[in-house]
Specification:
three-stranded antiparallel beta sheet; binds adenosine-5'-triphosphate; two-stranded parallel sheet; mainly alpha; 12 helices
């Protein structure tokens, strides 16, 4: 038995009232004493009988009864309640008696009963003490256990947290499993319904199958009878067919003989056709070769035609370009013609003033004024009065800063009119060192910037003739002459044998 069960047993039994305890002791002794149950009952009934004597007294009891009651067995088996009742009754009787004397035998009984009660009280006290010690030891045990539990509790807080988390996860898992289980339950319900449905379908199909089976069996029997009939018919027909087959065999033999003769005839015809086809294949090959050569000829002719057409196309394009250029030239000529007509006469006179040459910077210029419209005022310090200044009028005056290109641009339209058949003459006039060569040829041929009117004019004419070559072919010739002291000299003639002019009229006028 464990301590807890011991405590509960003790609490329920031993710490009760005195009477209960005494009753317990009595029952315990009763069980331990191996005497007959009837004897115990007899001892107890003795005390009960005595106590039920309400009108009688102990003093009046016979000595034999009292000595029986005083026996150790009788006292030990009596209940504590009975013992206290005996004591009280004896004491009450002694009080009621006037002389107060108690008979010797009653006093002896009283003493024995009191001793019995004392023993029981002592035993009871001893039990209480033992119980108390037991409770104390158990309390100490519980205290130590409590402390151990407290230590365990503080030590296992972290574990408890982990366990709580695991528990949480397990709960979640459980919820998931529950949901899954619900779904599965629904599936089970669905499947059960389906199963029911299929079962009803199966039962229906079974019924149909039974019906079909019966119908089939019926059909089978009908067919069997029909088959028998048909068999008989077929046997008859077979006989008829057998006869027909014999006839047919005879006919086949006749036809075979006929086809054999036909085959020989067709064979001969095939041979004739083959010979005919072979002869025609030869002539066909010849025709093919002729056709190939004709095809090549046709392709060659086609190519030639294509090239000629291309050539015509180019020529046509040239004509179109020429027509376009011709229109442009016509427009330009018209413009030039108008310009020339606007001029007063066909002669233009330009004046170019050259800058001072190196080393002449200290000299004073005689040019007073250069006008926009060709006016030039020249001062003559040697003359006085009115003659001091003289005004000259030109088509245009080029100042010392004018470039070669600016000078050329004014003469360019006139030069271009040469290409349309007009006669043009550019004539440079001036005293020695005034800049005629510089203007007409330029200081240097290597630099295009320095080119004078002659080079620029020829360059321009070559460009135009090149652009118009599809429509017009020009022949360009150059003459360069110098008139000095009324002597004309050919400047393009090499060496000392320079040709002297006047030339014959046909040469000079070209
Ligand atoms: N516009 C100009 N700018 C700079 N230098 C010029 C100009 N015109 C002429 N000169 C210079 O003046 C000098 C004389 O010029 P150029 O030889 O052309 O004169 P010219 O009239 O031909 O002389 P000549 O009649 O003796 O042959 C040259 O050194 C030339 O470089």
């Amino acid at each position: 038995m464990n301590p807890e069960s011991e405590v509960y047993a003790s609490e329920n039994g031993e710490p009760g009232s005195l009477n209960d305890n005494f009753n317990g002791d009595v029952s315990e002794r009763r069980e331990n004493s191996k005497g007959p149950h009837e004897a115990v009952h007899h001892d107890r009934s003795k005390f009960s009988d005595i106590l039920q004597l309400k009108n009688g007294s102990f003093a009046d009891l016979p000595a034999s009864k009292i000595s029986e009651m005083m026996k150790p067995n009788s006292l030990e088996n009596a209940s504590t309640q009975s013992l206290f009742s005996v004591v009280n009754k004896i004491l009450d009787e002694s009080i009621e008696r006037k002389n107060g004397d108690i008979p010797q035998r009653v006093a002896s009984l009283l003493k024995l009963v009191v001793q019995e009660i004392e023993q029981r009280v002592a035993k009871h006290a001893e039990n209480f003490r033992k119980q108390s010690n037991l409770y104390k030891s158990r309390e100490e045990r519980y205290q130590s256990r409590l402390r151990a539990f407290e230590t365990l509790t503080t030590g296992t807080t972290e574990e408890v947290e982990i366990v709580m988390k695991q528990l949480q996860q397990i709960k979640l898992e459980k919820m998931r499993i529950d949901e899954k289980r619900k779904v599965e339950e629904q599936d089970v319900i669905r499947l059960t319904r389906q199963k029911d449905h299929y079962e009803t379908e199966i039962s229906l199909l079974k019924q149909e199958l039974d019906l079909a089976k019966k119908a089939y069996e019926k059909n089978c029997s009908e067919l069997e009878t029909q088959a028998m009939e048909t068999k008989a018919e077929l046997e008859n027909k077979l006989k008829e067919r057998q006869l027909l087959l014999n006839d047919s065999r005879k006919k086949v033999k006749e036809l075979e003989a006929f086809s054999e003769s036909k085959f020989l005839k067709w064979r001969r015809k095939e041979h004739n056709y083959k010979h005919f086809i072979d002869s025609h294949v030869g002539s066909l090959q010849e025709l093919r070769a002729v056709s190939e050569s004709i095809k090549k000829e046709v392709l060659k002719t086609k190519k030639m035609y294509r090239e000629e057409i291309n050539h015509f196309g180019w020529e046509l394009k040239g004509l179109v370009d020429a027509a376009h250029s011709y229109h442009a030239v016509l427009a330009e000529n018209r413009k030039l013609y108008n310009e020339v007509q606007d001029l007063k006469g066909n002669i233009r006179v330009y004046c170019r003033i050259r800058p001072f040459l190196p080393g002449q910077s200290e000299k004073q210029t005689t040019i007073e004024y250069i006008g926009e419209n060709g006016e030039l005022v020249v001062m003559n310090p040697l003359k006085q009065g009115k003659d001091n200044h003289r005004l000259f009028k030109f088509n245009k005056v080029f100042g010392p800063a004018a470039t070669q290109e600016e000078v050329f641009l004014d003469t360019q339209p006139l030069i271009r009119s040469v290409l349309d058949g007009y006669n043009v003459c550019i004539f440079a006039y001036g005293q020695t060192g005034s800049g005629k060569t510089y203007t007409m040829s330029g200081p240097s041929v290597s630099s295009v910037e320095d080119w004078g009117v002659n080079y620029r004019a020829l360059n321009d004419l070559f460009h135009i003739s090149q652009s118009r070559k599809s429509s017009i072919t020009y022949e360009i010739g150059v003459q360069m002459v110098e008139i000095y002291n009324e002597q004309v000299r050919d400047l393009l003639c090499n060496g000392s044998s320079q040709k002297r002019y006047p030339f014959p009229p046909n040469e000079f006028g070209a």
